[in-house]
Amino acid sequence: MTDIIFLVLLFAHIGTVVLWMGASILYVSVLGPSIATLAPSTRADLMKAIGKRYEGYILRNATIAIAAGLILYGYITQVATTLAPSNSGMPWILIGILSGIVAYIIGIAVVMRSNRKLMNMMNQAGSGPPPAEMGMVQKRLMMGAGLQALFLFVALLCMVVGANM
Ligand code: HEM
Q1: How many folded domains does the chain comprise?
Q2: Which one in 7, 27, 39, 105 has a CA-CA gap of 20 to 30 Å to 113?
Q3: Cβ(17) to ligand 1 under 6 A?
Q4: Residue 112 Cα, ligand 1 centroid: separation in angstroms?
Q5: Of 98, 82, 87, whose CA–CA distance to 162 is shortest?
Q6: Ligand 1 site, residue 70, Cβ cutoff 6 A
Q7: What count of other Cβ atoms lies within 10 Å of the Cβ of residue 134?
Q8: Is-above-0.90 flag for pTM?
């Protein structure tokens, strides 16, 4: 019989994972490099317009994805154990979980922090020249976003392999 709880958790997990990963890759591949080419004042306007909303969108989806994933893991290993991955699939799932958690931590500790710092600097700079430190923070932001996308990609591959072995 179809396990409704499993399906709901899996849909919540995969649905939010797709939104999180999509937004993260869009930033690394299109938004970030494009924003870097803008004049400082245009960049500041754009960051003010999308920065907070974009950050909230990623954080919300990432948090639901991780929470649903952890509940799903608890459910298939403790309650509906017939749905648990095979013995050979479990290590893949665990590597996927680790990569997902690392991606989440990078998102908060590096990407979000750099983004906030950048917005503060832009607000303080006003119409004057951008502070010298700004370039470094921007580089850190891009590097963090790239690393996050990489760990998400590894997590995705491990989850799919682990669940189907
Ligand atoms: C703490 C983090 C995570 C936990 C605890 C977790 C847990 C799980 C669990 C228990 C499953 C079900 C496996 C099965 O059906 O046997 C699953 C499936 C899946 N997860 Fe995760 N996950 C996490 C992060 C991620 C991330 C970051 C991604 C993608 C970037 C991801 C993508 C997927 C996909 C695509 C599936 C479906 C696989 C399939 O049925 O082929 N998960 N996850």
Answers
A1: 1
A2: 39
A3: yes
A4: 24
A5: 87
A6: yes
A7: 17
A8: yes
